[in-house]
Amino acid sequence: MAFVDSDKLSYEIFSILESKFLFGLDDHKQLLFPSSSSSSSTDSPRIPAGAAGRVRILSIDGGGSPSDAFLAAAALARLESSLRRHSGDPSATVTEMFDVAAGSGAGGVLAAMLFTRGHDGRPLFSAADALQVLLAESRRRGGRGFAAKRGFLRGVFRRPGGFLRRIFGDATLRDTIKPLLIPCYDLATGAPFLFSRADAVETDGYDFRVWEVCAATCADAGAAAVELRSVDGQTRVAAAGGGMAMANPAAAAMTHVLHNKQEFPFVAGVEDLMVVSLAASAVAPSAAGTTGLVRIAGEGVADMVDQAVAMAFGECRRSNYVRVQANGFMCGNCTPRMANPKNLMEAAEDIMSQRNVESLLFRGKKISGETNAEKLDRFSGALIKEEERRKKSPIPTVVVKQVMTPRTSSATNITTTTTTTSTKTTSTSPDH
Length: 432
Known about the structure:
Blueprint: H1 2-21, H2 29-32, E1 55-60, H3 67-87, H4 94-97, E2 100-103, H5 106-115, H6 127-141, H7 143-147, H8 151-158, H9 162-168, E3 180-186, E4 191-196, H10 197-202, H11 210-217, E5 226-229, E6 236-239, H12 242-246, H13 250-259, E7 273-278, H14 289-313, H15 317-320, E8 321-324, H16 344-353, E9 355-359, E10 365-371, H17 372-392
Parallel strand pairs: 1-2, 1-7, 2-3, 7-8
Antiparallel strand pairs: 3-4, 5-6, 9-10
Helix pairs in contact: 3-5, 3-6, 3-16, 3-17, 5-11, 9-11
């Protein structure tokens, strides 16, 4: 019992520090004692605890290997399949079951593919369709370019124009359906820069073309910076890649929600959040060269963010936080197959079948009794329950900022012959 009490005290002390330094909250009771009547925020309406529901956040890590995008896309396709099964709706999508998306590097491209509005008003892709498009592009390029480890990612995600411009056209951050956050490191200011839909809606000075944002977050640390300007030309960014600044954007997404009272008026603390965080692949990085060192640093920081976020959730982390990542470094028989597009799905399935890795309060990590696939399946049920709760509640959970001067998106809806379901329009009404 003494050990348990000590653990609880340690958690409370850590939460006080974290609420101040990680999430910027001055009132630590918002995190520690959410039900306390003496700790209500003065700038938020008073409502019964839990009545407004929980805000659902999707976070996708960035990475530098060509497998990163596919593993995250495969995990999202698995989650989407589970959502359809649990809801009984064959056209349910990841987009409609999350309120906020954050992605770095290849994860940023995936988030943009799912949350950018197409010319027909619907999301550009379901998770299943996004995965098939990436696979089709990898097969089209194929050969030595893909096998050269980073050649595919550079060719598809980093080269100006090409694949990214074909997918997103002239769509800007304002054309995203829900709040979207994508980071890069800005060499012009020597600081991280977070591309945000919320900022883009407020002013043209922070509205950027989506394909350029994706190129910025995927910029190669060992190559020239990706230069881009806002749609009004007033803001200039010299991007060195999202992995340089924020390989794991989960904490940034949580902070955005906790402080954005305009769109998330009833969120008081982490107990009001549901977070699904997808890690980059765990292929052992090489220490040789600048890129290898950057990847090591990025993965180390991503792991530290996971630890901090898991501790912030504390006792409610099982119901409110899911982290999906490879169990240690990629298994030996998986790594060689990453060089062949035909075997990418097999490698992704291997990761899904691995036991999930969980961060513990001041105890490092442990191997869970659930596989990554089982954990996603369980959490999908919780996402569905939250969606059903909102349909019956008169209290809005999210109030998405509306675009005052909407533009017509020229993003291209690409259909594939490998999937038969289509995405649905995601509502931006207060209840969603």
